Amino acid sequence: MTNYHSPVMLNECIEALNIVPNGIYVDCTFGGGGHSKVIIKKLDESGHLFSFDCDEDAYKNALPNDNFTLVQANFRFLKKFLKLNGVLKVDGILADLGVSSHQFDSAERGFSFRFDNDLDMRMNQASDFSAKNVINTYSAEKLADVLFYYGDVRASRKLARTLIASRPIASTFELKNILQEFSKDEKLTTQVFQAIRIEVNDEMGALKEMLLQAAQILKPNGRLVVMSYHSVEDRIVKNFIKTNTFNGKPKKDLYGRFETSFKPINKKVIIPSDEEIKVNKRARSAKLRIAEKT
């Protein structure tokens, strides 16, 4: 198995799933298999683990177990691929959102401004839509919205105009240099690269689709465990668990009762310990939410 990254809050995630040996579980974000390896050890021969990942690099890490299936697809297609495997209901779903250290550390993938390479940022390398498309084809308004909502960039409209005036922008260092001329604060570069990556991979859209499907396929008392690294992601998860909606406004049924699919297990969001953050800097922004299907 290649060294992708150290899973954040590994023990907390596994405990949150409340695993039963003969259950069926889903790891939505297989990556290097850190979570999957531990889940599979807790299952007996009648249990099964389905793991999803659209990154072809992840397939080098596939587990040899007979009760393990690695699905080469984005987790937004969760229900479809489980049904293809004859599965309609599951006991638990885990999603560790964001980007693996492997993807950040692979220069040719274009996720990081530490390396000079093509602007790419595709998690699914079969996709024909990359960071170049966002940077070089979006209108000023659309680009500004991406920077503001996904990167918390305050001067997003001014920066969008600067980027458009600098087109074409082909490489990570070209983008990095433009951003550093715009502002000496390296935080801005991090924010912009994050925003572009989220847009390229439609991460928020995929998350919403997965949550809607999770509500349909989890068995009663089944667990939903989601770890996010961005405030928008966390808000989406929090709202959906609490209200069954993404805007935080609950819907009522015909009798005026609020519709709920989940019961929150942790009222307060779970964050990593100071000790874990010292060892794994990736853990700094992680937020873990756990819910049980009603």
Description:
The protein is an alpha/beta fold and 294 residues long. The chain folds into two domains: 10-101 and 203-293, Vaccinia Virus protein VP39 (Rossmann fold, 3-Layer(aba) Sandwich); 125-200, Putative methyltransferase TM0872, insert domain (DNA polymerase, domain 1, Orthogonal Bundle). It contains twelve helices and seven strands. The chain has a seven-stranded mixed sheet, with helices on both faces. Helix 2 links the parallel strand 1 (24-27) and strand 2 (48-52). Helix 5 packs across helix 9, helix 6 packs across helix 7 (156-165) and helix 6 (140-151) crosses helix 9 (186-200). The model has no long low-confidence stretch (mean pLDDT 94).
